[in-house]
Design a protein that fits this description.
Blueprint lengths: L19 H13 L11 H7 L5 H9 L6 H11 L12 H9 L7 H14 L4 H6 L4 H21 L10 H13 L3 E4 L5 E3 L5 E4 L10 E9 L3 E8 L2 H7 L13 H25 L1
Parallel strand pairs: 3-5
Antiparallel strand pairs: 1-2, 1-4, 2-3, 4-5
Helix pairs in contact: 2-3, 3-4, 3-9, 4-6, 4-8
GO molecular function: ATP binding; hydrolase activity; RNA binding; RNA helicase activity
Catalytic activity: ATP + H2O = ADP + phosphate + H(+)
Protein name: RNA helicase
Length: about 280
């Protein structure tokens, strides 16, 4: 609607009007992602994000990826996340499926594990028999490959380069993911439980995750069953959050938690460092 220059969303004649609170949350999300400015106007970055048929967070990640020299890998990840999970696990073959999945597991979590799966699928020539042997869904992976091709054409038209750099790939990749998912952050409190930082909801890491027990993590999906889970998870450095989205981490608006206290300490350290660097430069 913003791209179509429809600005008065509150008074728009919707056939089925959204809840006003939902509308405000959506606008707030767009603002945090720099898709719209404080006056509610579409930014140049927002226009680029609107070019992609993706959730806004994933569009943000995709257009940010050249900056982190990992657009090849991010393009793959966004495509895999836009399809169904590639993993197949039935009760009868649970142990064999877990063993097959173990060969793809990356120490830095689920996003890099998915990347490893897709890359191996392409190296195997998109072989269906190989997928079946490794308890992978060939339809999901084929769909991801088709989505990737479509998105790569869109990136080429927009002049976004497809580049990759193997040095520091994991760190660069996770920093880029944090550009879109900085609102999807959890911290492990002293009691061993995870809480979402802004809403202070207690969650568990989904049993399908390969991530272990990181102190800080970003996630792709929030899943509500009888329990609350986060799914597709990777560890991050808390300092990255303050570097990437300082406008979001206005900590006075966050509920009290151990994670908030840690970020407050980090903010003070970073400000002190910046001041020392400025004084050194002045001298």
């Amino acid at each position: 609607m913003k791209v179509l220059d429809i600005h008065d969303l509150a008074n728009f004649d919707f056939l089925d009007p959204p809840n006003p609170e939902t509308m405000m949350r959506a606008l707030e999300t767009l603002n945090f992602l720099n898709a719209i400015n404080d006056e509610g106007e579409l930014t140049s970055e927002g226009r680029w994000m609107a070019e992609f048929p993706l959730d806004v967070e994933m569009s943000k990640i995709l257009i940010s990826s050249p900056k982190y020299v990992c657009s090849e890998e991010i393009l793959t990840l966004v495509s895999v996340l836009s399809s169904h999970s590639p993993f197949v696990r039935t009760k009868e073959h649970a142990e064999a499926a877990d063993k097959a999945k173990a060969q793809f597991i990356h120490q830095d979590g689920d996003f890099l594990t998915l990347l490893a799966v897709f890359n191996e699928y392409m190296r195997e020539g998109q072989n269906i028999e190989w997928c079946n042997q490794n308890f992978l869904n060939p339809k999901s992976l084929k769909s991801a490959a088709e989505i990737r091709e479509q998105l790569s054409q869109k990136m080429a038209r927009l002049g976004l380069p497809l580049i990759s750099q193997k040095n520091n790939l994991s760190e660069n990749l996770r920093k880029c993911l944090a550009c879109g998912f900085f609102m999807h952050v959890v911290h492990q409190e002293r009691a061993g439980v995870y809480i979402t930082l802004k809403e202070k909801q207690q969650v568990g890491i989904h049993p399908s995750s390969t991530v272990g027990k990181p102190e800080w993590a970003i996630y792709h999906e929030f899943v509500i069953t009888p329990n609350k889970y986060i799914r597709t998870v990777s560890p991050i450095n808390a300092e990255w959050l303050l570097e990437i989205a300082p406008h979001y981490f206005e900590l006075s608006r966050f509920p009290e938690s151990q994670g908030k206290k840690m970020l407050e300490r980090l903010q003070k350290m970073m400000r002190k460092r910046e001041k020392e660097d400025e004084e050194e430069e002045y001298d």
